[in-house]
Design a protein that fits this description.
disordered N terminus, single chain, mainly alpha, 212 residues, 10 helices
């Protein structure tokens, strides 16, 4: 009986690579900002600045077991990635948040290394988008529809810091006090309250930046 000839295996097609993660959801971010592209431009530039020292600062907090600093940094990054529409980085922020909450730093450092690479990819995507859209931040310093007295510089800086930490209740207490002391600052205070009601950190910071 003749030996059956072995069939040559047919070549298989290479697997289709999965779609890459969505680095920047522009439409979703603009929707959250009411379609205001100039605000989005400011938010993107601020996000790039915030990302530049994130890994270094987080590494320092991990090395010193600074749990408060770790929590503050992850909370701020989670809000920032959500605001700019950095979808993939936001997902990784949630994973990093869980990793850095553990007592051991080994897993947290591994996550941080991967996180740094995703930051680089996201920032590159943002820069490409800014260039392609020729986005410019608006040069207006004070809203013409809301004339009023300029608040003290130290108060503006304090509000920026509190907003970046998500401490909206403290901001509200400060502007209430400011308005009681100086009624000419009412237009400014009303603008701050509007953003506080929306719990919109990025838009609030952008608004503050319009009062140099």
């Amino acid at each position: 009986m003749a030996r059956q000839q072995q069939e040559t295996p047919k070549p298989t097609a290479p697997p289709v690579p999965p779609e890459g993660p969505e680095l920047l959801d522009v439409d979703g971010a603009l929707k959250r900002l009411g379609g205001k592209r100039w605000i989005y431009a400011r938010v993107l530039h601020q996000f790039i600045s915030d990302c530049s020292h994130f890994v270094e600062t987080m590494g320092h907090c991990l090395a010193n077991q600074d749990r408060q600093g770790i929590a503050r940094l992850t909370h701020k990054m989670k809000g920032a990635t959500s605001q700019v529409g950095a979808t993939a980085l936001y997902t990784m922020t949630l994973e990093l948040e869980r990793a850095v909450a553990r007592p051991s730093t080994d897993i947290a450092i591994e996550n941080l290394i991967a996180f740094e690479k995703r930051i680089q990819q996201t920032v590159a995507s943002i820069n490409d988008f800014i260039v392609s859209q020729e986005m410019q931040t608006e040069s207006v310093t004070q809203p013409s529809s809301q004339p009023g007295k300029r608040p003290p510089a130290d108060l503006l800086e304090s509000i920026r810091r509190l907003a970046s930490e998500g401490r909206f209740s403290q901001i509200e207490r400060r502007i209430d006090m400011l308005e009681r002391e100086d009624r000419d600052t009412k237009p400014f205070c009303e603008g701050v309250r509007e953003h506080i009601r929306k719990y919109d950190e990025a838009a609030l910071i952008a608004y503050i930046n319009r009062w140099p």
